[in-house]
## 1
Amino acid sequence: MSETAPLTADGRRPAPEAGAGRRVVLSTHQLTKDFKGLRAVDHLDLSVCEGDVFGFLGPNGAGKTTTIRMILGLIYPTEGYAQILDHRVPDQRLDALRHVGGFVDVPAFYNSMSARRNLRMLGRMSGEVSEARIDEVLDMVGLSERGDSRVGSYSHGMRQRLGIAQALIHRPALVILDEPTSGLDPQGMKDVRELVRELGRQGTTVFLSSHLLHEVEQVCNRAVIMNKGRIVVQGPVSELRPARMWVKVLTGDQPRAAEVLRRLLGPGDVTDGGEYLRVAAGDGLVPEMVRRLVAAGIDVRAVVPAVEQGLEDFFLELTGDSAEASQETERPHDPSEATP
Amino acid sequence: MSHLRREIVKVLFQRRTYVGWVGLLAIPFIMTLALRLSSDQPPHGEGPPFFSSIAGNGLFVPLAALAFLSFFLLPLVSSMTGSFVIAGEAETGTLKTLLTRPVGRGGVLLAKWFVAILYVAVGLALVGLGGAVAGGLVFGFHPLTTLSGGQVGVAHALGLIALAYLIGLAGMACIVSLAVALSTLTDSSLTAAVATLVIVLVLEALGQFSYFDFLKPYLFTARFEDWFNLLRQPIPWRPIWEALLVYGGSVIVLVTLALGVFRRKDILS
């Protein structure tokens, strides 16, 4: 595994430049799937580079699981193909799957066997697996103490964790996780997200399907938003935000503050919100706003986000009724990543 | 070999494996006990083949058990075993777990098919051994009276019984193969099992009508009683070889069909 980009202070990997000297681990090329006349995935082009923790977002029915099934060779594309490292799926499925671990939908195991035996059996299908490695992955997902219990006695959350363990058992270059926190309690969600973050820190490429947008914001560096089988937008997570954010400004002299800010931003970007001024300002404009207010001798008491408009709002904005306009709203990070 | 080992381990870890085998093992013991205790035994020449001969010779018990089970219970067990091969794993979701690993679909299917036949083989062996033990304990072993009226020694008879079971297994391999083929077409093992039984019953019905006599040489279901020829003197080998040929041909066609479907199947469950 090649060296990956250094981490930021909060442990997140900085948004990498797709294709900027990094190896593409997973890509899809015009990947399409029809089911009885219904197009589930429509000429999908995406690429995931080495070291990415890549979010794959979309509402139910967007085509996420169908895409993952095609990537894993479980279903055959109507058109196009996926590529894992140098191997095309479905044509070179076996070679490709040696480099992949993951699960789709709910992870399923042989209930009458222990977790350890399941891992041993599944791991050996991808190569030799030592008992020490089995212990290691059980420990990683917090199942060390229940490793010898029958999987039939496991809760849903434990099965999810075991699903992650089996995905990691053979140290794959690419880990594909389909809604890994689905059905977990808050602590379980937190643990799994931390685990995914840790995988990213270790340089493992993770392809994470989720409909929990804040989850993607927390753990991923790049993401695709998909709707009705098509890519709506893809790029670094930090860029998948509306360009303008609203903030609430409270000062000692609201009328004068409004005047100063209107001069700075324009009249339409400052409205009277009663107790507060409601100001449309990007992240970079807030310091300048405060400087101008202070320079005008106005006492600044608070500047807070007016609406917590993050990826979630952006996602709803994009997928709500804009499927037809998806190509127009696309904001690819790299021109080469643009969907046709 | 790793496919086979994995499938064998999976079967051995399933409780229903042992339930099925214990059930099959119980049949010859129940038959023996019922006959031993029954004061109202069927007259000679009536009842299922060999049934009336059991009381006198323990060697008839495994043969009678084979004849008795071949009509329904063994086809039922074979169809259920074969139908679980793909559809059962699809139902439980483990099929996708297996196929996201770097394993060829053909190898997976062939290993599963073979282990399903192995399961039926062990079940048949338990019936045969159970019949021999129960019959031997209750009635003792005596020279076997053949259908031609002659007698063969105990050792020779045991050899013929083993051969009869192998031929019976070949017949059941056809049903397993049919069930495996159908299990690649559905994600419900129950549907596959019921469909298998329906097809077997329809084929058996076809064999009963003279209008369809032209089909009879090719129907594996019309050959399930051909092992009876082993109990004639001299043994007419031709119908036995023909039966094995039909069985072999049916298995090849059905397994090829199953492979063709499974290799292109979209795994959606």
Note: Residues 1-17, 321-340 of chain A have pLDDT under 50 and may be disordered.
## 2
Amino acid sequence: MNIYLTLARRELAALFLSVTGYIIIAAVTLLIGLGFVVLLTNLGSDPSPVPVTEMFYGTYFFWLIVLVAGPVITMRLFALEKSAGTYETLMTTPVSDLEVVASKFTAALIFYLIMWLPLLACLFVVGHFTNQPGAMDPGTVVGTYLGIFLVGALFLSLGCFASALSRTQMTAAIISFVLGMSLFALGFLAERIPVTAQWQTSVVSYFGLFGQMRDFARGVVDTRAVIFYTSLTLVFLFLTLRVVESRRWK
Amino acid sequence: MIEVKDLTKRYAGRTAVAGISFAVNRGEIVGLLGPNGAGKSTTMRILSTFMPATSGTVRVAGFDVFHDSVEVRRRIGFMPENNPLYLEMRVREYLKFRARLKGLGWTRSRQRVDIVMEQCGLTDVHRRIIGQLSKGYRQRVGLADALVHEPELIILDEPTIGLDPNQIRSVRQLIKSLAGKHTVLISTHILPEAEMMCSRMLIMFEGKILAADTPENLQSLMAGSSQVIAEIAAPVDELRNAWLDMPEVEQFDVSAAEGAFQRCALTPRDGHDLRPQIFELARARGWPLRELTRSRHSLEDIYVQVTKQNEEEEGA
């Protein structure tokens, strides 16, 4: 446990000690701000029937942030250590592979959540200065952040996996972006294809990322979606662990 | 401390280490010598549990590097080639982080970090960012990291590469000071360096260990073919005759040097040391003698010599 915390702290510090970390935060803040602008222009003077968080989600800046930030945060995790050679110093200390994978993922997730904090400020501004008292409604805010957390965890676990496979940050970013895009495309497919008796369509329907996230933004927590994201995240973390372990059987 | 038996490592299509066996005792400083690509780094990576061996067994402090990898890692301090460090961290912060990773408690890691920083001369730079330090200081940070948890075995891959002569001297002194308390395995391709630091040398070449002995024994093994250079002011003919009359001289070569001096390169027979005889000769004849040296062997000579011997043994 101690080693896990020590490692996670260093990973998080490394994200904040590098220029990349601040560039990511700045870019995401800009995108959230753009979403906020779109949101404001859409707001009428009367209280809207739709929760403000769902309106923000409707601007689609959400997916842009997740798709781009995921690979950029995670690309360094393993690939940078391999190209700098520090992977060797790290793996020759008495740490377990699980501790390494878990700590790197945790650090990325914490950074990702910090990155989303400006959204709270936007919601606060809307709730306080416009005629939308429901903007800071605890239910929808918690639901939205739970969605952000779950979707983020999945995309970050894809990134971890890609980074563990790669020797350079660039390849890691490309692989995780492609994986993320495929998942995103499956989401589209799930929206378009009606569920029929065939098993293929019902499998695809699980990947209804958009519907699931819209529910979260409405403050509706669907346990099926929670289980879907959690289990897929665990699958990719497990694959990452196997890749890290594979060093020993090569 | 280290027992290596029939260790082989094959990469796709290439054998990096071809069935080597050796043992290192507790408290020894052993040098792993060889040219680039001889398999030194591969051997060290296997010893440090970073890579698995293709076949063969390696035990460190009685633990198998593959099956009891974590136990082995607890007992070693490894500094890989090119000394990779987290450049964005500060010296003290880095060493504390490493100490914690290696399982030292909060207070213990603080104490140890202070001790190794003192030992490696890092106290003055403890607040500096590693990326801004000179190569010599970075090397010391790497060494301090290898020492911080008081490991039984310290493995250093090319610890002095790329340093200036002063820095090399201080790193060598530091390594020498570890003798007795720790077991040290160092790789290098510089022969004099190994001679200075190590109590025993293993010479590796193309994935095999060609010779394993003390530096003195290896030197005397080589002395047999070491040339003696003498610069003497004397008529060429008389000099030639003098060498012909000397039975211990196997081969000689006389060439003109500046002034009246002649430069003679003499190869002795059966490892004989020719120097006293040459001095006697010059004194008896009243010839001025201005240089008399026995050339020392470079690592390349040793490889050539040792490979030649091996071939002869195989042929016989």
Note: The longest helix of chain A spans residues 138-165.
## 3
Amino acid sequence: MTWPKIMAGALAPLALAAAAAFGGISEVKAFSVYVSNEKDNTISVIDSESLKVVKTLKVGQRPRGILLTQDGSQLLVCASDDDTVQVIDVKTWEFVKELPSGPDPELFILHPSGNPLYIANEDDNLVTVVDIENNKVLAEVPVGVEPEGMGISPDGRVLVNTSETTNMAHFIDTETFEIVGNVLVDSRPRFAEFTADGSQVWVTSEIGGTVSVIDPIAREIIKKIGFEIPGVRPEAIQPVGVRITKDGGRAFVALGPANRVAVVDAKTFEVEKYLLVGQRVWQLAFAPDESLLFTTNGVSNDVSVIDVARLKVVKSIAVGRFPWGLTVSKD
Amino acid sequence: MSIVGVHTDTSRQSEPEPPEPEPRKRLAALLAATIIVSGGLGFAGAGWAAEFARIPIAYLSQVMERPPKLSNLDLPPEDQGLAGGRLSIADNNTTGRFLQQEFVLEEVEVPADGDPKAAFQALLDEGKQFIVLRVPAPALLELADMAAGRDVLLFNVGAPDDRLRDADCRDNVMHMAPSRALLADALAQYLAWKHWPGLFLVVGRRDGDGLFAEAVRRAAKKFGNKIVEERRWAYGPDARRTAQSEVPVFTQDVEYDALVVADEIGEFGEYLAYRTWLPRPVVGTQGLTPTTWHRTHEQWGAAQLQSRFKKTYGRWMTPLDYHVWAAIRSIDEGATRTGSAGFAAIRDYIRGPSFELAGFMGQKLTFRPWNWQLRQPVLLVSPKALVSVSPQPGFLHPLSLLDTLGLDEPESKCRIP
């Protein structure tokens, strides 16, 4: 089953406004948002046109990390408690195969070329590199305790993995599979995201309550961003997911049990605004044209939709229990 | 000696030292957390030491005597505490690989009727500076005084006595274990939040029961609950077969909301639930119980520590395992953040304002500078469910909500210089 491509004229006023705000975009394609529900063992599929769940798919146990292949034809899901990565055809919804993921896969990322896949094996202190076409493990890289966050440079040369109990961002050469450097960050680093130009990598620290902006060449922290929200106790501010606009202008940081997404000026590193979303906001994903940002809210069991141009939360969509990760199709 | 390979004070002197393993092999072995590396700085291999800075840690534990009990259903694991320490060392060495730091654990066990002082003195003579202690309060005070004035930092993982965080506090002891007051406050907050203020306190015959009862009374006053009745269960475990007739009579003629039981070793507390005259919940040392770690705890990444522990040791992690894990992780935090293996740098970091420990409790854990108690949330559990986590909503504090639990600065008579 495919999602119909719809012209802008047929879209909800919300999407129209967003498209208009981005100027020059006369046509917006419908897309799908795939959400992994950690406690339900399902994937919720949200249609961008109706902003409703149109399908719920049963998958393996404790689904967390979720990605689409480069061509958008297959969905990859970390079924953490089944110690596997499941591959699902998004047209037929059939399981195509399982990838040799190593134990307890939590988060993963694809090489910009579409292959290989780099998987964080949380229980075994490893990053597993898998050729997704041949189903072969290319390498296992020993990293720190409880590896989780995975970021890759736009040129595909440097992989960054964060280890939650070691509190480091490990820089891994994707040719040699060797760790070439480690940057100590604040407690419990959970996510790593490169800027589109590759000049910075942003690493969130959940317990430390900060975001470290790292120069990946010098492998030094150039700025540590902190957060203060009136009426929210500092311990509740726990940064997890982060996404940065392609133009490098703005970053959005999910703040966990603070139930807010921080909007950060990515040039000055100043926090511009906090957007109230659902409870325990975890991961973030942009619409293909960056007009919308979707958030998974683990405790309120919903997805918040943020209008990126207006910096407003415009909708919340009920999904399964403990929504964890999400990914968005190109069309 | 029940634990294989543990070195007592005497065996340490006489046993031949194991050959120095290859660096990589040793790391692998440490990661597997199965071997015990004995000795300290004294026999560090030259090549290895040149590359890796070594941070020796000692775990001194006195076996607790087990009097005849109600039940042998849940025997304490023989490696309780030790397993937490070994896992922590393995975690630290995974991190240490990137910083050229190596952590080594020396394990010393003293029998229940033994004297931990001699074993402790031997550790001091060896130059051990970080020592994790699982000994009763009187021994802890003696050992702390033996180490006074030296460059030694102690971690209390077993003694819950409030006096150690109060008038009898010592500047060289960091308390990983919660005090009875901390646990009782966590429970009292929940009872207040539930609007179950009327408490019927049942106290066992042992010293610890009296101390727990004292903490319950203090907590009731602090959070506006009321002890409406207090009775002493003096019969120990003798009612094993007659509880159905004894307990209703014992609990008659009182109006209350919850029955709080003070029975730390589990002599009779399990008899009470479902047998009280009035249908009321049982809380305290049995029933709904305050604790730092439990097999039902899976939030905030705890599932990962649980799973790592269970895979390695084939059993669930206990609170004592968790306290030892947290103590050794704290030392690592000091070593990692300062990039140093030196005692002063690590100690000052642990006791300084930047210290924060990610302990799978949903927020950073820090130390109270007035008595060195670890600030920590408390789980309220029934045998197969996590019921709640304190502090409860609405109990406010100007500094940290965690300071609503246990001896807050104005409440503590501890005056660390």
Note: Residues 1-13, 15-26 of chain A have pLDDT under 50 and may be disordered.
